[in-house]
């Protein structure tokens, strides 16, 4: 019985992937996102995740704040990303892998169709929303990106990647005050985020003025 169910799941996945690719016009593959823009993302190599997801995250966020140096913080950060990215659904895992490949190859429309499928199949899966928010940002579609970031933060308020992404969007649209607030929230959770401390310093001087 288990073998039959597994085979049926693979057939459904093959049909789903084929439908997504077939529904995407070939001409749309040339519509690439800007290569200069980048939101916070998981590192390439991730460790195995603990069985107790909630308890593991609570412990890791505490360790992230207390990390004595950047190397230690990056190790903890990678473990957090591993938990966020983990899914028990083989279908979602494969769709996410295919979407990342499409994004790396700048096939943004294919990636979007794949991520739409992820969100539809598993609306409780935080990284489906977060990855799609990143893709929308790369396509300069800030309205949809912000909507997806809202979904991420509703499910995981400690998502420093989404908070940093929110800050980047606010900065891009000229709302420096809200950008600063978002970056500060991200840093309060993860003090070792790349480039964010510098952004906070610059925006603090711009929004609040230099200390006299």
Brief rundown of the structure:
This protein is an all-alpha fold.
How much helix is in the residues? 55-70%
**Low-confidence segments:** 1-5, 16-35
**Count of DSSP H/I helices:** 10
Kindly state the mean pLDDT as a whole number?
83
Rounded Rg? 19 Å
Q: Can you summarize the main beta sheet?
A: none
Share of β-strand residues? under 5%
The succession of helices and strands, N to C, reads HHHHHHHHHH
Distance between the termini: 74 Å
Count all strands and give the number: 0
Broad structural category: mainly alpha
The outline comes out as globular
Overview of this structure, please?
- The protein has helices spanning 2-23, 53-66, 70-85, 90-104, 108-121, 126-138, 142-155, 160-172, 176-189, 196-208.
- 70% of the residues lie in helices and 0% in strands.
- The relative contact order is 0.11.
- The chain is globular, with a radius of gyration of 19 Å.
- The chain has 212 residues and is mainly α.
- It has 10 helices and no strands.
Please describe the structure with a list of short key phrases separated by commas or semicolons.
212 residues, mainly alpha, 10 helices, 70% helix, 0% strand, globular, disordered N terminus
What's the SSE blueprint?
Elements: H1 2-23, H2 53-66, H3 70-85, H4 90-104, H5 108-121, H6 126-138, H7 142-155, H8 160-172, H9 176-189, H10 196-208
Helix pairs in contact: 2-3, 4-5, 5-6, 6-7, 6-8, 7-8, 8-9, 9-10
